[in-house]
Amino acid sequence: MVEAVRRSMQEAWGNPSSTHALGEAARAQLSTARAAIARLLGARDAREVLCTSGGTEAIQTAILGVWRAQRARGRTTILSTRAEHAATRRALDTAVQEGARVVWLPVDAHARVDGASLRAALSHDTALVTLLYANNETGTLLAEEPAAVAALSREVRAAGAVLHLDAVQALGRIPFSVIELEADCVSVSAHKLHGPKGVGALWLRPTTKELWEPLLAGSQEAGRRGGTENLPGIVGFGVAAEEARRWLEADGPRALAAVRAAFEARILERLPWARIQATQVARLPNTSSLTLPGVDAELLLALLDAEGVCISAGSACNARQRAPSPVLEAMGLSDLDARCTVRVSFGRHQTVADAQAGADRIAAAACELKYELTET
Fold first, then answer.
1. In this predicted model, what pLDDT tens digit does every residue of 113-133 receive, in sequence order?
2. Domains of the chain
3. Is 317 an active-site residue?
4. Long-range contacts: 274-280, Cβ < 8 Å, 24+?
5. Of 51, 310, 317, 340, which one is the catalytic site residue?
6. SS (H, E, C) 48-98
7. What pTM was estimated for this model as a whole?
């Protein structure tokens, strides 16, 4: 992937929108990368993929683009949950400033939206429903099977609303198809599948065009996003997408789930008082959310970082904030338990031995901190 990005910067530095030879070469690379991203998404046509500067822009382009178009049609309500990623919550804050009414749907103890509440909340006034397909802190999936998401998608569309799924965490970690999910727009990001940071994509169902408007005006991306495309980043995304697709086809998620299972088993062996969130529901194979009562998560992170073990407290996007995670609060965790919860993520190149070694270090550090907290 790194080599593909380097070659793109050296050999295809023309503007993809230009008609000269350099522009044609750049446009060819852009088309190839877009096709690879579309294949991983399971899209029918690569032209349905809109390239962005990352997951945040993809999410906010979907939410604000739909909201502004639907507002013109007299629809002013957005349905979501408080367990969404910060990028979604901030986009909803902007929509509220522009006149939207947000209905916050409840989630259960695993961060899953209550389907009955969602259906009951749908009305003639609903503009948009925006939900995480895979939770960024617990790894919880929106539903056990794609067919359940598809059924929800059809109900949302029948109400005249648009369903947006934030699939940033899911892409390249579990197999899914935007066609099977039947959503209207799906946001993804390159860096979650070992691609470059600062590049993402938004898949748009062709029929969504009338219910959505661009966030950035301009002629690029078929008039859907202004600004010269980040060609090296998109090329890297395309290569990462192809590598992820091959990994998925080789049963990679099962192997990664085994790594995570070995980690969790070792944690519970060493720390029987620990709690692991969302173990009884469908979740991503790479994510483990640990509640360690009596262990301050921020102190644990600092101690482990000094030993070369990198984990996070809640979302990495909020890592510098001291407030408890809104996701954990929405799940019903107390303020104290939320402050004692960490997220451990595994990459597809890590092994069972890596996971067990990491668990041993986390357990040792947690015991040290818990002892100090108890004694003071």
1. 988 999 999 999 999 999 999
2. 2-248 (3.40.640.10), 252-375 (3.90.1150.10)
3. yes
4. 274/366, 277/110, 277/111, 277/138, 277/331, 277/341, 278/110, 278/111, 278/135, 278/138, 278/139, 278/140, 280/110
5. 317
6. HEEEECCHHHHHHHHHHHHHHHHHCCCCCEEEEECCCCHHHHHHHHHHHHC
7. 0.93
